[in-house]
């Protein structure tokens, strides 16, 4: 789907943009909650608890909305996104952030949108419009600046960097896999079944979760529940809603708003005053996202998936008046 100029956006386009905004705000809050819950819960247990809460809530919404099982054509994308993004990504990120500082983790994980743009151009035929490439470059530079400003080189390991890189790869592959599934099923259905797949994949951590829940402080458990309810159940659904209405590359670039929001939220909620370098990096992230959302001079190629599932236009009826 080609981006429209600001004045030419339809209400549905603004709705998709608003859904993307909800996603990035909630994903930014997740970093604060993970920091709290991660002190009491190990990576696998935290991922399972978060996914279990998200699956339960999404299942209830599916019952209320009577969302059925996705058709067969959607299942390859649902399964891949469930295993890679909902499952492996969350465990790898939780584990990686224990091995490296937050700044290093942010720099490595933010390779994800770059990989999304490349994979979606290769596998989905979305192309690489110049505004998207320029915006990703500016935002990635901003993410690196934010990472450098808060990094602690004394708390880093090769294992942690590799785990964060694995998380970025799983995130990118999961998004690109989810995009075709959304051509066959609704956002709520795709999100619920993907979350359920991720939950099943994390079931080996059940014993650890039960053991740690008995010793965890209430605040850590409440943060885990929050992670499942909002950054997972709600944010992944609004993400899928927006992803179905734009390209995977542009949606990936939109997530560069997250580092800027994390800087502000850490300042407001954790009393962590950002330095000048963090503020510069945050501004670069926002500027890059704005550039990536611009319409290119020529129409971007449509996704093969969308084009393949678009019915041919009905023949126009002739009228006595000119067109």
Overview in brief:
With 323 residues, this protein is mainly α.
- What structural category arises from helix and sheet content? mainly alpha
Write down the Rg.
Answer: 20 Å
What is the molecular shape? globular
Mean pLDDT: 83
How many structural domains in the coordinates?
1
Strand-residue proportion = under 5%
- How many helix segments? 14
Helical proportion, percent range? over 70%
Our measurement of the CA-to-CA distance between the termini, rounded to an integer number of angstroms, reads 25 Å
Main sheet record: none
Q: How many DSSP-defined strands?
A: 0
- SSE order, one letter for each helix or strand: HHHHHHHHHHHHHH
Low-confidence stretches: 1-8, 298-323
Provide the fold topology.
Layout: H1 11-37, H2 43-65, H3 75-99, H4 102-109, H5 112-123, H6 130-150, H7 158-181, H8 187-201, H9 206-215, H10 218-243, H11 248-254, H12 257-269, H13 276-292, H14 304-308
Helix pairs in contact: 1-10, 1-12, 2-3, 2-8, 2-9, 2-10, 3-7, 3-8, 4-6, 4-7, 5-7, 5-11, 6-13, 8-10, 12-13
């Amino acid at each position: 789907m080609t981006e429209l100029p600001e004045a030419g956006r339809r209400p549905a386009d603004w709705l998709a943009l608003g859904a993307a905004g909800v996603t990035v705000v909630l994903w930014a809050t997740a970093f604060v909650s993970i920091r709290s819950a991660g002190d009491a819960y190990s990576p696998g247990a935290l991922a399972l608890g978060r996914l279990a809460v998200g699956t339960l809530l999404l299942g209830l919404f599916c019952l209320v909305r009577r969302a059925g099982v996705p058709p067969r054509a959607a299942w390859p994308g649902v399964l891949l996104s469930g295993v890679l993004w909902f499952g492996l990504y969350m465990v790898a990120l939780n584990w990686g952030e224990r091995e490296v500082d937050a700044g290093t983790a942010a720099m490595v994980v933010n390779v994800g949108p770059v990989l999304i743009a490349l994979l979606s151009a290769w596998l989905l035929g979305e192309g690489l419009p110049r505004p998207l490439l320029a915006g990703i470059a500016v935002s990635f530079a901003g993410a690196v600046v934010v990472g450098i400003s808060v990094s602690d080189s004394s708390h880093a390991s090769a294992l942690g960097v590799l785990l964060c890189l694995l998380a970025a790869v799983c995130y990118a592959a999961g998004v690109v896999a989810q995009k075709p599934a959304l051509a066959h099923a609704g956002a709520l259905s795709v999100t619920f079944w993907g979350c359920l797949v991720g939950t099943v994949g994390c079931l080996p951590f059940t014993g650890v979760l039960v053991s740690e829940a008995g010793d965890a402080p209430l605040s850590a458990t409440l943060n885990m529940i929050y992670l499942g309810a909002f950054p997972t159940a709600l944010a992944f659904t609004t993400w899928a809603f927006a992803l179905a209405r734009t390209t995977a590359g542009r949606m990936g670039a939109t997530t560069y708003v997250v580092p800027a929001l994390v800087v502000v939220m850490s300042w407001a909620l954790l009393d962590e005053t950002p330095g000048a370098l963090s503020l510069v990096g945050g501004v670069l992230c926002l500027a890059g996202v704005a550039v990536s959302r611009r319409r290119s001079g020529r129409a971007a190629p449509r996704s093969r998936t969308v084009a393949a599932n678009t019915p041919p236009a009905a023949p126009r009826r002739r009228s006595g008046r000119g067109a």
